[in-house]
Amino acid sequence: MNKIKIDTEYITLGQFLKVADIISTGGMAKWFLSEHEIIINGEQDQRRGRKLRLGDKIIVEGHGTYILEG
Question: pTM value?
Fold first, then answer.
């Protein structure tokens, strides 16, 4: 499981994808989310504006499992 550190209350799913080095630019988020399954805390979600908070578990199809920590 990969750990991603954040120092804010939350980050969006689009920001997470960039911070986790899954995509190289924020503009790729919409395309990536339309092509890959994302599971957040056991529920599928493709909204790039979805707020992710400390302790959230994110599974990115083909890339791995991540958890947000402070």
Answer: 0.93
